[in-house]
Design goal:
Pfam family, one: Abhydrolase_1
CATH class of one domain: Alpha Beta
Largest sheet: 7 strands, mixed
Enzyme class: hydrolase
CATH superfamily of one domain: Alpha/Beta hydrolase fold, catalytic domain
Helix content: 25-40%
EC number: 3.1.1.116
Protein name: sn-1-specific diacylglycerol lipase ABHD11
InterPro entries: AB_hydrolase_1, AB_hydrolase_fold
Number of strands: 9
């Protein structure tokens, strides 16, 4: 690639985005100008952290019937509860269920914490469900949120009526690619604070379009871009997540079996949920079903929203 090595590296990264571990590593810290210039390569193991106290999570709850198990959406890494608002409204309207969306710790409007482990996020979720009286519930988790959902189901199966994991395995995927090439490009993007939200998205869209034609990628990124005190920032505690990336990538460290109905959704060629994991997954989730949504990439609910909703509604019925 010669002097254009960085561009070529990103082009290769962008072509493989549909299989990148968005639910496994956080690359972003706010504000944009303070992003790290040097990041390590992804790993699959690392030191375990001591679980911190539970944090009060920011959430939105749509009302519904008390006689039906509520639905709880758990977002992926570098996202927040707003990413599932359309799906939450659709489910509430079509099923009559209560639907909860929430910000995981270190994301959105929830408090920050140095502990980014799945044990801690599962404890936060358990506390919120008990506070709102929403257990047992249906958990639908994308990527990082899927791992959190699986963790809770294995720890406290009585709290989970059924489970949906979207494009993520409870085990390490050895071929997850390095996504850190995007950092320098995003760091170099200066979004003036006086731009409107639509203008900021247009700028982000135009900036990334030469590197990836996938609109779902830009939509996913833009979901966490907010303007605070006249400055656009990424609303996620990337520094802490980066420091604990090994835990986020690692196999879930939990004992137990969840015997409730379980659906694993994935892209046909997913590296996050390879078919080679199916037999091991069945040991933890004996009732697991596996369903492919072709060409959905990793961000299934954005890339193939109708197919995603059809799968969820069918599973709930």
């Amino acid at each position: 690639c010669g002097s254009r090595g960085q561009l070529c590296s990103f082009n290769m990264w962008a072509r493989n985005w549909r299989y990148l571990p968005w639910g496994s590593s956080c690359l972003w810290i706010s504000p944009i100008r303070s992003m790290r210039r040097s990041l390590a390569t992804l790993g699959s193991s690392g030191p375990r952290s001591v679980q911190s106290p539970r944090v009060p999570l920011s959430y939105k709850l749509l009302d519904g019937q008390d006689t039906l198990p509520p639905v709880v959406f758990l977002h992926g890494i570098f996202s927040n509860k707003n990413i599932f608002q359309a799906e939450a409204k659709t489910l509430a309207q079509q099923t009559g269920r209560k639907v909860l969306t929430m910000d995981a710790r270190n994301h959105g409007e929830s408090p920050h914490s140095p502990d980014c482990s799945y044990e801690a996020m599962s404890a936060d979720l358990q506390a919120l469900l008990q506070k709102l009286g929403l257990a047992p519930c249906v958990l639908i988790g994308h990527s990082m949120g899927g791992k959190t959902a699986m963790m809770l189901a294995l720890q406290k199966p009585e709290l989970v009526e059924r489970l949906v994991s979207v494009d993520i395995s409870p085990f390490v995927s050895p071929n997850m690619p390095n996504v850190f090439k995007i950092i320098s490009l995003m760091e170099s993007l200066n979004i003036p604070g006086d731009l409107s939200h639509s203008q900021a998205f247009k700028l982000l869209h135009e900036y990334l379009e030469p590197f990836t034609e996938d609109l779902s990628i830009r939509q996913y990124l833009f979901n966490s871009l907010v303007r605070i005190d006249g400055q656009y920032v990424w609303k996620v505690n990337g520094e802490n997540l980066q420091q604990q990336k090994h835990q986020l990538l690692d196999t879930l460290q939990v004992q137990g079996v969840y015997r409730g109905r379980t659906l694993f959704l994935r892209d046909t060629h997913s590296s996050f949920l390879p078919s080679s994991h199916y037999s091991k997954i069945k040991l933890l989730f004996p009732e697991a079903q596996f369903q492919d949504i072709p060409d959905s990439g990793h961000i299934t609910h954005i890339k193939k929203p109708q197919e995603f909703m059809n799968s969820i509604l069918s599973f709930l019925s």
